[in-house]
């Protein structure tokens, strides 16, 4: 079994779910008392948030480079970044270390293609929805058509994520707002919905969505275990 290096803390609310999923999947596949070999390097999300909103992505890249080097030094065989948005600076990780890095958009693209879908909605932070670091992979490498919500709904999602979800606040009102946004995207032809913020699957139960949903946290965790056990 390879040792999984996790860069977490963005936010810790979803990082704990990553750890849970990874160990549950290992136990399911290997049985007995097996658990995952892993190393977690966790950041202070307040710093990440501040740099994100001021557009200082190079500073975030430096933090990710430091975390990647820490994980390699601690014995990690490969790295996953336990967030969607900060994959915007994933090059800082791949340039810093010579161990594999598993990109969340690749894992998500594979999962969507396996279901035979062509057009999907992407929900997440404004950075994930509006910049091309995520959609470009889905469109160019997996041939998907990616729909994003209108500007008002993107602002709403941004507010829910940063003012509630990353602080551990999950309300029925916010869940209903997100479900309404997904319905709008379905009316535009979306065949599935990417929950492209690692906290969103905590808020939105799969059973309450009329479309197939793609829980990026669980998909990424599954990919990490596949790689660790291969």
Automatic annotation (TrEMBL):
GO molecular function: amino-acid racemase activity
UniProt source species: Flagellimonas eckloniae
Keyword field: Isomerase
Species classification: Bacteria, Pseudomonadati, Bacteroidota, Flavobacteriia, Flavobacteriales
Top-level taxon of origin: Bacteria
UniProt keyword Metal-binding, yes or no: no
Region forming the signal peptide: none
InterPro entries, per database record: Asp/Glu/hydantoin_racemase, Asp/Glu_race, Asp_race
Entry similarity comment: Belongs to the aspartate/glutamate racemases family.
Protein name, per record: Aspartate racemase
């Amino acid at each position: 079994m390879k040792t999984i290096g996790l860069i977490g803390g963005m936010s810790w609310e979803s990082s704990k779910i990553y750890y849970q999923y990874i160990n549950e999947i290992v136990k399911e596949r290997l049985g007995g008392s097996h658990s995952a070999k892993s190393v977690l390097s966790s950041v202070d999300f307040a710093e990440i948030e501040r740099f994100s909103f001021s557009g200082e992505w190079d500073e975030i890249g430096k933090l990710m480079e430091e975390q990647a080097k820490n994980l390699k030094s601690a014995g990690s065989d490969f790295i996953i970044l336990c967030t969607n948005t900060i994959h915007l600076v994933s090059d800082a990780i791949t340039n810093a270390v010579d161990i594999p890095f598993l990109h969340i958009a690749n894992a998500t693209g594979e999962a969507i293609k396996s279901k035979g879908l062509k057009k999907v909605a992407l929900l997440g932070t404004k950075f994930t929805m509006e910049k091309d670091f995520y959609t470009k992979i889905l469109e160019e490498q997996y041939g998907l058509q990616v729909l994003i919500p209108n500007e008002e709904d993107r602002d709403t999602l941004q507010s829910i994520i940063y003012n509630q979800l990353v602080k551990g606040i999950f309300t029925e009102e916010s869940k209903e707002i997100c479900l309404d946004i997904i319905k709008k995207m379905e009316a535009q032809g979306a065949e599935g919905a990417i929950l492209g913020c690692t906290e969103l699957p905590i808020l939105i139960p799969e059973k309450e969505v009329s479309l197939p949903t793609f829980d990026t946290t669980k998909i990424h965790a599954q990919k990490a275990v596949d790689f660790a056990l291969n």
